[in-house]
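To the structural biology subgroup,

Please find below the input and predicted structure for Zinc-dependent metalloprotease, which we are adding to the shared reference set this quarter. The sequence is reproduced verbatim from the submission form. If anyone notices a discrepancy with their own records, reply to this email rather than editing the shared folder directly, so we keep one authoritative version.
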Amino acid sequence: MSNLPDDPDDRDRMIREALQGIFGDRTDEVLAQMRSQGLDPAALFGGGAPDPATMQRLMDQLQRLFTSDDGPVNAQVAHDLARQVAVAEGDPSLTGGQARSATEALKVAELWLDAVTDLPPSGGPAHAWSRSEWVEATLPAWQRLVAPVASSAADALATVLRDQVGDDDLGGLGVPGLPVFPGGGLGDLDPAAMMRSLGSAVYGMQVGQAAGTLSREVFGATDVGVPLLAEPATVLVPTNVAEFAEGLDSPFDEVQLYMAVREAAHARLFVHVPWLRAHLHGLVEQYAHGITIDLEALEEQVRGVDMSDPEALRGALSGDVFGLHNTPEQQATLLRLETALALVEGWVSEVAATAVLPHLPHSVPLREMIRRRRAAGGPAEHTFKSLVGLELRPRRSRDAAALFAHLVATGGPEARDAVWDHPDLLPGTEDLDDPSGYADRRRAQAEEHSDVDAALAQIFSESGGDDDRE
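Predicted structure (tokenized):
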């Protein structure tokens, strides 16, 4: 017999309240998915006796929704939340006219860039994306960026909770009275795995929140400064470009063309400087792997939380809760990363400004608007700071742009673009402080390397002569 009320509204309310503790804000989504597959949620509470195959499908779905995937960031949670946040303020489908206008702007941008840099076009397709499409395309990159810290954080969370409640009590984190069906169910989950799963879900929620918020701010696929696409492409998000253009003195067409030039310049750099992508991602990973997590701060954060209430625990773990501490090595890596991001932004800013100057009457104020926007950052960038302890902001982009402008003035566009010929030639903080001395330091470095090469050649030559005499 059923142990649920006969009234349908009362029954639905009781089921929703019982599952709220497990799924929180996703309860309605879970119920909708179950019903769409012909599964009756009342079966969990004595509402009937479904056949074994139906029950197995039900429990498989519940376990997929409650447990994490194999990674340190729950990809499904991140994806679902990012999509929700992306459309929270509206995400209308692009019209054919919007898409054509955006892709045509990207094509024009390539022609203008051809006149000011020898770096060729990226060679990829030109896209016009909605916010949701941007999320779908870039979310895997964000998950990879935070994965090293997320893995350490999930292990730390499991350690803290085990110390607080003990292994014997960890199994009680589910909803009291939730049945365990023959053949396995939620009650059979390994406690340690549940803790790692919870940490993965927390990071999934934060990544989803940040990526979804970014989807409402970005103009393309490259303007956060780090490559986010696996394959070459140029992208515009016309909805965001249009919102940015509102209230500006510049007409929309000018704003869109300016954003298109910046996007195409970024894409050229990331595609045709083969070591740059690995250099940026390597610095992010090096920084993330070296982060230490303050277990005492984490323990303080979850102290007093009802361990049988997953929703309360999830709330306690939202935000900057993992006590991330930077070592001196971390600070050095962060400085290198910020310098690299500034150089990317500075080069793009300088090249784009040169390319659009003959064509766009409002190019100068547009450049200043973008500079201020990038310098200030946004809520999503602050969220990523709480995730991995770093802000993806080019703090010294003005200094970097001044360096590239100086190189053009003294050596032409070829000198500006030659900076990207090899990672050893990349300017450092000293060069941002003193652009005029960069060329002299480069020459001194080249002469030093030349002397070393000559000495090594002499050594090897003499060694070869000895071998001949033998």
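Summary notes: The chain has 19 helices and four strands. The two ends are 99 Å apart (CA to CA).

Regards,
Lab coordination
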